[in-house]
Design goal:
Layout (H helix, E strand, L loop, with lengths): L1 E5 L4 H14 L7 E5 L23 H10 L7 H12 L12 H23 L3 E2 L9 E5 L7 H11 L4 E5 L3 E6 L2 E6 L10 H13 L7 H7 L14 H18 L8 H8 L13 H6 L24 E5 L4 H6 L6 H12 L8 E4 L6 E4 L2 E4 L4 H18 L3 E5 L1 H8 L5 H4 L3 E3 L5 E5 L2 H6 L3 H26 L9
Helix pairs in contact: 2-4, 3-4, 13-14
The protein binds uracil.
Length: 485
């Protein structure tokens, strides 16, 4: 029996050399006890390596994987790697065998380590510890990684912070960078590090890049797991920022500018084409909308967002265009405006799931501002061009009533997007007899600065949804064939 105790620093190289020696001497996995420095010594183990036999070639892809897996915290990692390597020497194709359970396990370990390295790059927080008059600035950070990632990730920090001294202290191994030289030490206990001015700056930065309109708590916590929060100064502000998000999203919406449209010539050129109605099979419509490249709006949006709801619905709800969240998820009215609509609809007993919910324009039109995408209202020509899809949806859904929310929907459907405040609550009839109930857009309710005006607008919106619910209930008592289409 051979026993190998691998060092905490230089582990990858030590494992590689030991494994190569054992493999060359054809020592089977069951005759080796692998341990790291923390493992208890084995009284019966033989530390000496056997004499080298013939060299064995190993696929490069295994070496790359092993160089990552050795940093996993699982004590079994070395023996798992060697056992797989032992099989691999007679069956090199194993590296591409997706059904192999051992390989799948190693790949998962590799993924865990890479994820931990990623977290380390993102969440290490340095605090200044040097004297103000020292020739080089000096920083220290305390970090608690899930795997042994200090050594394999330290190059990243060397590249980033080569002109200062720094140390990353962890319970396992610490990285010390002094006078341009990197070294490693055994782990530390948590030190008392000073708060510094840089920390205040970091908190301010974090609060500023936080976009309340794009808040997705679950996604955020999966990106920044809670276990890292305790060593991140800005994390103390997260609960408050989550609580403040709805109000800040409202304020952002109020401040959102409408910028002049870009590339209108291209839009116009496209508008001249595609005159006839869409005539594919009904079930292909969402797919066809998603694939839309009929106007340049598709160039920047993530995806086109088709309507959603039953294939035949009594009520069709039409908004303006997908917002930021809708563009990312591919579903209409799932962001702040959608939530506003949902909650008021629920209050008045209007069942969103029974309605077909869509937009006048299928792509998100925006202008980038730093990391944010600022909504831009679609042009009349874009609204008209996208009516092609709305017509296809109307033809398929055959609603008994359309609820047009806001100026763009009203413009698309009736040709007139003006005087919405005066027209809201009224029903207009399309040339084919289809009634359109005009109402406000829910994002308007989120934007109105004056609370009294907002309350009044919200009450009007609620009233309009109630009217829609009443009209649908009334229609439901008639037979479908009685209704005009
Ligand atoms: N605003 C809209 O008009 N539609 C959406 O889908 C989302 C926000």
């Amino acid at each position: 029996m051979h026993r190998v105790s691998l060092p905490p620093v230089g582990t990858a190289k030590a494992w590689r050399e030991a494994a190569r020696g054992f493999l060359a001497a054809r020592v089977p996995p069951e005759q080796i006890i692998w341990g790291d420095h923390a493992a208890a010594p084995d009284l019966f183990g033989d530390a000496s390596l056997p004499p080298a036999g013939g060299p064995v070639s190993v696929p490069r892809s295994f070496v790359t994987m092993a160089e990552t897996v050795v940093w996993h915290s699982d004590p079994e990692r070395f023996s798992r790697l060697y056992a797989f390597l032992w099989r691999l020497k007679d069956a090199p194709h194993l590296m591409t065998d997706r059904g192999d359970g051992d390989l799948a396990h190693l790949r998962q370990m590799e993924k865990n380590v890479r994820r931990c390295q990623h977290k380390m790059k993102a969440f290490v927080r340095f605090r200044e510890i040097g004297a103000p008059d020292a020739p080089r600035r000096s920083f220290a950070a305390w970090f608690e990684p899930s795997h042994h990632t200090v050594e394999p990730t330290s190059d990243f920090f060397v590249r980033r912070f080569s002109d200062m001294d720094w140390r990353i202290l962890t319970p396992d191994v610490s990285a010390i960078f002094e006078q341009g030289k990197l070294s490693f030490q055994e782990g530390h206990t948590k030190p008392d590090l000073p708060e510094d001015a840089g920390e205040a700056l970091w908190i301010t930065y974090f609060q500023n890049i936080f976009n309340p309109a794009r808040l997705m708590v679950k996604a955020m916590q999966s990106e920044m797991p809670k276990k890292y929060w305790k060593n991140m100064p800005e994390a103390a502000f997260i609960p408050q920022m989550i609580a403040d998000a709805p109000a800040r999203a409202r304020a952002m919406a109020e401040a959102a500018p409408t910028l002049p449209p870009a590339r209108m010539a291209q839009v116009q050129a496209q508008l001249a084409s595609h005159a006839s109605a869409w005539d594919g099979p009904a079930e292909d419509l969402p797919k066809a909308i998603r694939a839309c490249t009929r106007c340049p709006l598709h160039c920047h949006a993530t995806q086109a967002v088709p309507g959603e709801g039953p294939a035949k619905a009594d009520l069709m709800v039409v908004g303006e265009q997908p917002g930021d969240m809708e563009d990312l998820t591919g579903r209409p009215f799932v962001g702040p405006a959608g939530q506003m609509f949902d909650s008021i609809a629920a209050e008045v007993g209007l069942n969103r799931k029974a309605a077909y919910v869509t937009n006048a324009v299928k792509h998100f039109k925006f202008t980038p501002r730093g990391k944010r995408r600022i909504h831009q209202r679609p042009e009349t020509s874009e609204i008209k061009h996208c009516r092609w899809w709305l017509d296809a949806e109307i033809a398929q859904v055959r609603p008994r009533l359309i609820l047009a929310m806001g100026a763009t929907a009203a413009q698309s459907l009736t040709g007139d997007g003006t005087r919405i405040l005066a027209r809201r609550g009224t029903v207009e009839t399309l040339p084919d007899g289809l009634p359109v109930l005009i109402t406000l857009h829910p994002s308007y309710l989120l934007r109105v600065p004056d609370p009294a005006v907002r309350d009044r607008a919200t009450a009007q919106f609620r009233q309009d949804l109630l009217t829609a619910a009443g009209m649908i209930a009334q229609h439901a008592s008639c037979s479908r064939e009685d209704m005009p289409h």
